[in-house]
Specification:
Blueprint (H helix, E strand, L loop, with lengths): L1 H108 L1
């Protein structure tokens, strides 16, 4: 009987240690659960911030693309006007050269 009492007393202290360890683990679990919740909130906040930034970036990129298209169109129009003006000036110079050559020829005949 004495052996059983000693065994119960020995196991009793082990059981108390297990209860303390269990209580400690329950407390740690609660702290980890709270930290997990905070971390999840932070991740959600970052995801929203990235989503918003992506939306703004996409809009800015589309606006820049539209501006480039507009500039390209304007440049193409300017090139067409320049080419037209160049053609007119070349024709005018050609006519002036012919007129000068005719005048030169008539002057030489006299």
């Amino acid at each position: 009987l004495h052996g059983r009492v000693v065994a119960c007393e020995t196991h009793g202290s082990l059981i108390e240690n297990l209860k303390k360890s269990h209580a400690s683990l329950v407390g740690d679990k609660g702290a980890h659960t709270a930290q997990l919740s905070v971390t999840a909130d932070k991740v959600e906040h970052l995801e929203n911030a990235f989503r918003d930034a992506l939306g703004r970036h996409s809009q800015d990129l589309q606006a820049a693309h539209s501006k480039i298209q507009e500039l390209h169109s304007n440049t193409a129009k300017e090139v067409a006007v320049k080419d037209s003006h160049h053609k007119i000036v070349s024709e005018h110079l050609g006519n002036e050269k012919e007129a000068r050559e005719r005048h030169q020829a008539t002057m030489e005949e006299r």
